[in-house]
Design goal:
- By secondary structure, the chain is an all-alpha fold.
- It has 25 helices and no strands.
- Helix 14 packs antiparallel against helix 15 and helix 19 (326-341) packs parallel to helix 22 (379-387).
- The longest helix is centred in the N-terminal third of the chain and has 21 residues, at 54-74.
- It is elongated and about 105 Å long.
């Protein structure tokens, strides 16, 4: 382990493949397995080849490779291995040689980056080969026996992927990093965080799972550390996360919110906001979150010093996600357009930047939904168009900027209003009158 506890990125050894490519002598091949095979083991392997006992020597080599791999995996802690394999029956005193299958060991080794995908494929082929010949009953038919070339390939696979490698120290460092997630708060400049970003995906996925478990179960100082590390690490690895892990984070947010775990809720919300990740929160909670954010925008808009106070809540609303949930769409549009249109005194340029960003993400069908289903009942927007000249001018700019005249309107009054919003000031009176009529219809 390095002095700074850095999680060194593991790069599986592959140069042995080239070194053994042209070698066919068992005596020479086993010499590359010195890191793990004793001289006695090497002599036994060579003797097996010389006697033509290819099935026996292949079984022996595979057993040595599997035992070595499982022993290295056990350095992670068998209980942690159980977590990674989704097995609740593994504990720290479990025997890796008997409690982990060969297939599980290979699968986990590939996830950890101990072997490359190509090496994992070859090792799985070797496992199939050994299993196949172990199950064959002797009939005297030589065509059913393993040939030397098959045993040589298996020997090379086991040496290049497992037996010829040094110990996998990276896994040990990761276990220590895992423990520290609830014991200290990391900074973005910490070597452990930087190297985690470049680690095999399994480490990233496992770290996210650990953090989510900690924020849901810990209390006091460990919870504070876990929340702080969640806010730091999730945005750092978000682009690398697969969809399933992103949904896992969104589901965790829903769970801690429902449980009233305020510190965890705040932490996960900050992490999701930083990456526009609310698309992965369950729909009902997403809608509530968007509605609450829109309400804060409207409170600021109609409050004192609104041009200054609108910026933060509008920025928050725009950053929640790339898609607004349908149940919250009308409220979010009401708040966003309130900011975009401004009031009789002007508009908040700082907030408009974020409002424009949100409006720019809308698809044509979303604009159609707003114009046909929401706009005729949008009291805030209709009130602005009914009485204030500056918001009306901004409305005509909105119609032009987002090409709303191309929208197929189902309400003839709305279509008439939009068609007369192409230019100002000639259309001001018409916009004002139609908006007033629509506003009155909402109240009736």
């Amino acid at each position: 382990m390095s002095d700074n506890n850095e999680i060194t990125v593991w790069h599986p050894t592959t140069d042995l493949v080239g070194a053994l490519a042209e070698i066919s002598s068992p005596e020479e091949i086993v010499g590359y397995a010195q890191p793990t095979l004793s001289p006695r083991d090497q002599k036994s392997i060579v003797a097996g080849f010389n006697s033509g006992s290819y099935e026996m020597v292949a079984t022996f080599v595979w057993a040595k490779a599997a035992a070595t791999l499982k022993k290295q995996l056990a350095t992670l802690g068998m209980e942690f291995v159980g977590e990674m394999l989704c097995r609740n029956d593994l504990f720290d005193n479990s025997d890796p040689s008997t409690s982990i299958s060969d297939y599980e060991a290979l699968s986990l080794a590939e996830d950890l980056g101990m072997v490359t995908p190509t090496q994992a494929m070859r090792l799985n082929q070797s496992l199939v080969l050994v299993t196949h010949f172990a199950n064959i009953e002797y009939t005297g038919d030589s065509s059913e026996e393993m040939v030397k070339e098959e045993a040589i390939v298996l020997l090379k696979n086991c040496i290049t992927s497992i037996l010829g490698k040094p110990k996998f120290e990276t896994a040990i460092r990761f276990v220590e990093f895992r423990k520290s997630l609830a014991e200290r708060s990391f900074n973005s400049s910490d070597a452990q965080v930087q190297s985690l970003i470049d680690s095999p995906y399994f480490f990233i996925r496992t770290t996210v799972s650990i953090l989510l478990s900690l924020v849901k179960t810990e209390k006091g100082a460990p919870l504070e550390h876990a929340v702080g590390n969640t806010i730091l690490i999730i945005p750092s690895v978000w682009q690398k996360l697969k969809t399933s892990e992103k949904w896992q984070i969104g589901q965790a947010y829903a769970e801690v919110n429902a449980a009233g775990n305020r510190p965890a809720t705040i932490g996960l919300k900050k992490a999701l906001t930083a990456v526009h990740g609310f698309d992965y929160v369950p729909e009902s909670l997403r809608s509530n979150t968007f509605n609450e954010a829109a309400s804060r925008v409207l409170m600021a808009h109609f409050g004192i010093n609104n041009f200054y106070n609108e910026v933060a809540p509008m920025s928050n609303l725009a950053s929640l996600g790339t898609t607004i949930p349908k149940p919250a769409f009308a409220r979010c549009m009401e708040a966003t357009l309130a900011v975009w249109l401004g009031n009789a005194y002007g508009e908040s340029w700082g907030a408009i930047e974020h409002a424009t960003a949100l409006l720019g993400k809308l698809r044509t069908e979303q604009w159609e939904y707003y114009i046909n289903e929401c706009f005729p009942r949008d009291r805030v927007v209709l009130s602005k168009l009914s009485s204030d000249r500056k918001p009306t001018i901004r409305w005509t700019e909105l119609v032009k900027a987002f090409e709303l005249t191309k929208i197929n309107c189902t309400d003839k009054r709305v279509q008439f209003l939009i068609n007369n919003s192409k230019q100002m000031p000639a259309s001001y009176v018409i916009i004002n009158r139609v908006a007033s009529d629509l506003r009155a219809a909402v109240m009736s």
